[in-house]
Design a protein that fits this description.
It is an enzyme of class 2 (transferase). This protein is of the alpha+beta class and 342 residues long. The chain has 2 domains: 10-106, Phosphorylase Kinase, domain 1, CATH 3.30.200; 123-341, Alpha-Beta Complex (Aminoglycoside 3'-phosphotransferase, Chain: A, domain 2). The protein is 41% helix and 11% strand. It contains 12 helices and 9 strands. The chain has a 5-stranded antiparallel beta sheet. Helix 4 crosses helix 9 (270-281), helix 10 (289-312) packs across helix 11 (319-325) and helix 10 runs antiparallel to helix 12 (328-341). The chain is globular, with a radius of gyration of 20 Å.
Length: 342
């Protein structure tokens, strides 16, 4: 059986787990999760228990992208902190086993909210889930990176300077047409980088509600997922990522809350969420928030461009959705330019 972004050779995986994962017993079945555009993710099912396998996609990849080894390391380091994560079982960096590196982790038996509006839930549940999201974010940025062995998890220097440089290179490497607003956004961001304020924390890099798993019958977070973009950096990037998502249109594609009467749904305003985060971290407030918001629109536009390029190359995890996402690059670039002005 040939391994692709859509499949696994179950005989090979079963044999590997029997040899390397204590307590594992087959027979093995697998289902691919529909979500997750970057690293294909599979539910591994056995009669005894379930696991999750997350792998690099096969084929030629952009340098430093799809770093499943980093995902494994950071979640292992956070095991005994206030940041909820799945238990890591094993990491395989041998591409010859299934065609690319992968790791196996605990399957969190909870529920996932695809959109912040949480259709069908009560106002009390919505409010509690968003507050838990806020609590976990503040806890993440309060982790003692030296104590958990992550002080070398990201390079020193101005986080935004290196991130804008990195994502500009990634965008150029996957560019399929000239998008003038994206070029303008890159130039504007490079000219607007704030002075380093000394904050150096662990950052998730893609912090949003659909990258979290919650209790089936409660509002406690069981685990934060998808740590591929995590590094040591500046905490406001994660905070602004939440606000960026909320400013998108509601619905399956935008997954935001633009134009909604949030109070009637039990949901906080952007300002209320930011204020609660600052309270939890002991901050007086945040200046120049428009820059951090703009940075997130830029980074997401770059990520989407990469997803779109992989779809064109026939190497996307979810090809149909990846092709649709390609049209959002211009939208995110425009939002990024607007955020810088407000």
């Amino acid at each position: 059986m040939t391994n692709t972004a859509q499949t696994l050779d179950l005989d090979v995986v079963d044999a590997y787990l029997r040899d390397n994962l204590p307590g594992y017993e087959g027979p093995l079945e697998a289902d691919k999760f529909e979500t997750g555009q970057s690293n294909p993710t599979f539910l591994l099912k056995t009669p005894q228990q379930n696991y999750v396998l997350r792998r690099k996609p096969p084929g030629v990849l952009l340098k430093s992208a799809h770093a499943v080894d980093r995902e494994f390391r950071v979640q292992s380091a956070l095991a005994d902190t206030d940041v909820p994560v799945a238990r890591m079982h094993l990491l395989c960096e041998d591409d010859d086993v299934i065609g690319s590196a992968f790791y196996v982790m605990e399957h969190l038996n909870g529920r996932n909210f695809y959109q912040p509006t949480m259709e069908g839930e009560s106002n009390e549940t919505r409010a509690a889930v968003i507050d838990e999201m806020n609590r976990v974010l503040a806890a993440l940025h309060s982790v003692d990176i030296e104590a958990v062995g992550l002080s070398d998890y990201g390079p020193p220097g101005n986080y935004y300077e290196r991130q804008i440089g990195r994502w500009t290179k990634q965008y150029r490497a996957s560019e399929t047409e000239v998008i003038k607003k994206m070029d303008a956004l890159i130039e504007a961001l490079q000219a607007s980088i704030p002075a380093d304020d000394g904050q150096r924390t662990l950052v998730h890099g893609d912090y949003r509600i659909d990258n979290m798993m919650f209790e089936k019958d409660g509002t406690r977070c069981l685990g934060v997922l998808d740590w591929e973009l995590s590094t040591i950096g500046h905490p406001y990037a994660d905070l602004a990522a939440v606000i960026m998502q909320w400013q998108m249109p509601p619905g399956k594609e935008g997954r935001g809350m633009a134009g909604l009467d949030r109070a009637s749904l039990g949901l906080p305003t952007d300002q209320e969420f930011i204020a609660k985060y600052c309270e939890r971290r002991g901050l007086a407030g945040i200046d120049n928030f428009g820059f951090y918001l703009s940075f997130n629109f830029f980074r997401m536009a770059s990520i989407i461009q990469g997803v779109y390029k992989r779809a064109l190359d026939g190497n996307a995890s979810n090809p149909e959705r990846a092709m649709r996402l390609g049209g959002f690059v211009k939208v995110f670039a425009e939002h990024g330019l607007t955020a810088l002005k407000t």
